[in-house]
Amino acid sequence: MAEKDQAEKAAAEGDTPPPASGKKKLILIVAAVAVLCLAGGAGAWFFLFHGHGDEQHAEAPPPKPPAFVDVPDMLVNLVGAPGERVQYLKVKVVLEVKDESQVEKIKPALPRVTDLFQTYMRELRPSDLNGSAGLFRLKEELTKRVNTAISPGHVNAVLFKEVVIQ
Hints:
By secondary structure, the chain is an alpha+beta fold. It is 48% helix and 18% strand. Helix 4 packs antiparallel against helix 5.
């Protein structure tokens, strides 16, 4: 009877050994996790380290330096309120193009570019040019206008050499 009482106590406390099918499931799960870890490590090694030392990549040729086109200096008066002192804007501009071949295409259109620049800048107020944001807007607008004038050619940027407001 004592053995029967001990067996009941052990069963109540959960000290009975797990059945054999539970051990097999645990071993199967541990083995599956180990296989996944090994496969992940092998994949990482393959993609990160395998064969990178002996490959030789062709070096890209150095980019060609851009070419620049000088635009004649421009001096325009700015729009002001009646009775205010007249203010002037003096601008020295350079056009940045992709290569030298485009320079020859742009030079015949420079009078048209100058005309577009001046007609736009004569409508500006001094407050339109305040701060770096004002100059950035001016630069973007001039780039848009020069690209319209020399189409199908393309200017990468309008660069300011000098901007003076008097």
